[in-house]
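Q: Please design a sequence for this.
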């Protein structure tokens, strides 16, 4: 059985997020926990879980104006690694 009993406390200890008061007249974006099994040779090796924001509840211009995704391009990673090897 997958359990998330200690997960919120663990995230607080790592300072992964900050709890702030809810601003007035705003809509809170809900989230969903997605579970996934990692298998090796047909045997479950790890259980993974992640919290995903339900962005489809947002309205452009009201809840957000820009979208950002933390994504590294493979070429940029190779360039930084090559530079690190040279120096």
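A: Design:
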């Amino acid at each position: 059985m997958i359990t998330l009993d200690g997960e919120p406390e663990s995230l607080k200890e790592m300072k992964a997020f900050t709890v702030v008061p809810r601003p007035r007249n705003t809509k809170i974006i809900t989230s969903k926990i997605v579970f996934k099994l990692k298998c090796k040779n047909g045997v479950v090796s790890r259980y993974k879980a992640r919290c995903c924001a339900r962005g489809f509840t947002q309205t452009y211009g009201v809840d957000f104006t820009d979208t950002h995704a933390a994504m590294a391009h493979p070429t940029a990673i190779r360039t930084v690694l090559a530079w690190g090897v040279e120096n």
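Q: Thanks. Anything notable?
A: The two ends are 48 Å apart (CA to CA). The first helix runs from residue 7 to 13.
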